[in-house]
Amino acid sequence: MQKVLRRTAYSQRRGKKLKQIQDETKERHARAAFKSEVRQINAQRQEAIYAERGRRRVNWELGPLSPWRSNFSHLVQETRFGAWDMQQAQVVEKPPRDRAKHLMFREGDRVAVVEGHESVKGRVGKIKNVDEKGETLTVTGINMADVAIQRTEEDIERGQREIQTTELPIPMRAVRLVYPLPDPTTQIPRDVIIDNLVVKKQRFDVYENKEVFERWLEPQHVRIPWPEQKEPKYKDEESDTLRKEAETVSFLPVLLRPPMPAGIIDELRNKFSKYRDRHDDEYIAQKQAEDAAEEVEKQRKAASVPRGAYNVARRRGVAGDKNREQVLSDDLAAQIGRHMTLKDEGSRA
Questions:
Q1: What's the distance, CA 179 to chain centroid?
Q2: Would you state the pLDDT for residue 175?
Q3: Which segments of 189-280 are extended strands (E)?
Q4: Contact by Cβ (8 Å): 98, 31
Q5: Closest-CA residue to 110 (of 95, 85, 127)
Q6: Alpha-carbon gap, residue 35 to 162, rounded angstroms
């Protein structure tokens, strides 16, 4: 059984290490793809800007003789009049590790643009949409631009325009929250641009099973509430499960039997998988019996002396007996004495 446990522990460590290597490789590829896509979009934007500058220069030089570009419908770029392409206006998603853990803005917040072009810098508006993966947001009526969209046949039949005016995304680092705070002297609320805004964990909502975070103005330690979110309205469909069916208790756990059949683990994981750490009682008993038999065999081998070692010990013992001083017993000494006396008497006769 110890071999099975060691094999499972080794396999789990190896699998965890391989998973870590795969995640790191995937993260590197995601960052490289993000940088490449950003460079590609920036290059397309610069190319479009240079092309528009060239066309504007031609129109200025030719004056009344400048071509009416809308007549050349086969030239797609010529009919857009400087509109952004959909690919140029899209937001590139950041890798998961590079994203902010907690966002400080939500839909409905009032923000002020502090960075960017002069046409948008200093303006205040309400957040229309927040992109968590790209860390951008769109503000109603700010950073407007013409975007050329790809129309389908249905869009053309409905009379949808090829060029539509919409808000372009703004990076979150370029905006600051605007919230009314009481004046220190008059105590009259007025809009204040908040710079030192932090997000802290407040509590854990056991009903919704999620952590609740709050915004705080530091170092004044003033809580800034989140904007009110409208509850989504759901429409009942015929395929929806009835409430009485969903609330019907179909399983009641008791202590007399397990919550699921014992053999279901074999369906979830291979019975002989090296990653399996839960086994049947029969399998555990079999492995314990094998361990006991192996332990008995070890003890037997430890008690018995191998043939080669026995011969070596025997030869060493014989050589030791030869070099060791011999001690005669009393009976043997008496017999030798008698034999020597008889021999002397025979020689004298």
A1: 35
A2: 92
A3: 189-194, 197-205, 210-217, 222-224
A4: yes
A5: 127
A6: 30
Which 3 state secondary structure label does DSSP give 213? strand
- In this structure, the chain runs to a length of 349
Phi and psi at 17, nearest 5°, equal -65, -45
Q: Return the structure tokens found at 56.
A: 């504007």
- Give the residue among 104, 161, 93, 176 at the shortest CA–CA distance from 131: 93
Residue 79 · residue 70 · CB < 8 Å: yes
Is there a contact between 121 and 114 (Cβ–Cβ < 8 Å)? yes
The span from the CA of 66 to the CA of 55, in Å, is: 10
Name the helix (H) or strand (E) containing 177: strand 175-182
Question: Do residues 175 and 112 make contact, with C-beta atoms less than 8 angstroms apart?
Answer: yes
Q: With a threshold of 0.70, does the pTM exceed it?
A: no
Quote the CA–CA distance of 188 and 181 in Å, as a whole number: 8
| Residue at 166: amino acid letter | T
Q: What does DSSP assign to residue 63? A: G
Q: In angstroms, rounded to a whole number, what is the distance separating the alpha carbons of residues 108 and 106?
A: 6
Amino acid present at 64:
P
Query: What is the C-alpha to C-alpha distance for residues 106 and 128, in angstroms, rounded to an integer?
Result: 9
Q: What is the pLDDT of residues 141-177, one digit of tens each?
A: 888 888 877 767 676 666 666 777 888 899 998 999 9
The radius of gyration of the chain from alpha carbons, rounded to an integer in Å, stands at 45
From CA 15, how far away is CA 266, in angstroms rounded? 20
The amino acid at residue 77 is Q
